[in-house]
Automatic annotation (TrEMBL):
Keywords: Membrane, Transmembrane, Transmembrane helix. The keyword Cell membrane does not apply. This is TMEM205-like domain-containing protein. It is found in: Membrane. GO terms for cellular component: membrane. It holds the Pfam family DUF4149. Residues 14-102 form the TMEM205-like domain. The chain crosses the membrane at residues 7-33, 53-71, 83-104, 124-144.
Length: 153
């Protein structure tokens, strides 16, 4: 494997680890503590800012992944590259949807009215969870060797 591909893969894994790790830790640990300490509305304002940063990190990570896909476009088995591209396209589309949905939810929070907020929030949580699973699959697909053994070997 060329050094540039190895370096890009390391950056891909590190980036995805930071993004997924941040999301997982915030969701599993920070949000419950905030709810106990601040209540729902104040937790929403903190989460509003944190998710902006998580989305910024996500944009940077998917850009690195797309760069790696471009650099490795002719390397390895076509079916492995196709699976990686499928997962990468899925996480990119989900991220764009989450960013758009986040702006709508921000508007609801800024007006002080939570009317219609919770169905949007539920959709955001579901999409984020699906994205987390897709990212796990993407990470796994990156770890598939560039050269698979041929059948019968």
């Amino acid at each position: 494997m060329p050094l540039r591909s190895l370096a890009l893969r390391v950056f891909c894994l590190l980036g995805l680890s930071v993004w997924m790790g941040g999301f997982t830790f915030y969701s599993a640990v920070v949000i419950p503590v905030l709810h106990e300490s601040l209540g729902s509305l104040d937790t929403g304002f903190v989460t509003q800012e944190v998710t902006d940063y998580l989305n910024y990190i996500g944009v940077g990570v998917v850009l690195v992944w797309w760069a790696a896909a471009w650099v490795e476009r002719g390397e390895g088995p076509a079916r492995v590259r196709a699976v990686r591209l499928l997962f990468l396209a899925a996480t990119t589309l989900i991220l764009l949807g989450l960013i758009a949905l986040h702006r709508v939810m921000d508007g609801r929070l800024e007006t002080g009215s939570l009317r219609g907020f919770y169905p949007l929030h539920r959709a955001y949580l579901i999409a984020s969870t699906v994205q987390w699973i897709v990212n796990l699959a993407l990470m796994t697909a990156l770890l598939v060797p560039s050269r698979l053994p041929e059948k019968g070997s």
